[in-house]
Specification:
single chain, 147 residues, alpha+beta, 30% helix
C-alpha cells in the first residue's frame, strides 16, 4: 500500500469566511445570446422552457460573477479538494483482459470500437428545436440580459 506524500501547504482557510459582494463591485451583467442558451440546454441536458427558467439561469450567472472580485493573489491552484489528506494509491496491475468485445456490447452506442459517452447527450429533437425557437421569439431581442 502506497500513500501520497505531499506536504499540506494549503492556502484554503480552515474556517469558512464570507463577505457580501456589493453590486457595484461586480462586472457589468453579461448578455447571453439565445444560441448560447440552446447550447447550454444540449450540453447540460437542462431545459429553460420559460421565463422562470431563464431567470434562474441569469441569477446563476450573476452569482458566479462574484468570483471576479475574489483576491487570488498568492493562492496556488488546488489539485484536489482532498489535498490535505494522504490518499491511497492503488497498484497498476492488470487483473483481467481480452474482454473488449464483451465490454463494448454493454454500450448503447459505439463508434469504431470506442464507447460514445455520455449516451444521453444528444442533439435536440425537431420538436424540441421548434419549442426553443418559439420561446426565443417571445424574447424582446435575441439576447438575455443578466440581472
Amino acid at each position: 500500500m502506497r500513500w501520497s506524500t505531499q506536504i499540506n501547504n494549503s492556502k484554503v482557510p480552515t474556517v469558512a469566511t464570507w463577505e457580501p459582494v456589493l453590486e457595484n463591485q461586480l462586472p457589468p451583467p453579461n448578455e447571453v445570446p439565445a444560441d448560447l442558451v440552446d447550447k447550454l440546454e444540449r450540453l447540460a441536458l437542462v431545459d429553460f422552457p420559460n421565463q422562470e427558467g431563464l431567470a434562474c439561469l441569469k441569477k446563476s450567472i450573476r452569482f458566479a460573477d462574484q468570483l471576479h472580485v475574489v483576491n487570488t493573489e498568492g493562492v496556488e491552484p488546488m489539485d484536489s479538494v482532498l489535498e490535505d489528506r494522504a490518499l491511497y494509491l492503488s497498484g497498476d496491475a492488470v487483473a483481467d483482459g481480452d474482454c473488449a468485445d464483451r465490454l463494448l456490447q454493454l454500450s448503447k452506442q459505439t463508434v469504431e470500437e470506442y464507447f460514445v459517452a455520455p449516451p444521453g447527450n444528444i442533439p435536440l429533437s425537431t420538436r424540441d428545436r421548434a419549442m426553443l425557437k418559439c420561446s426565443a421569439s417571445k424574447l424582446e431581442d435575441t439576447s438575455i440580459k443578466t440581472v
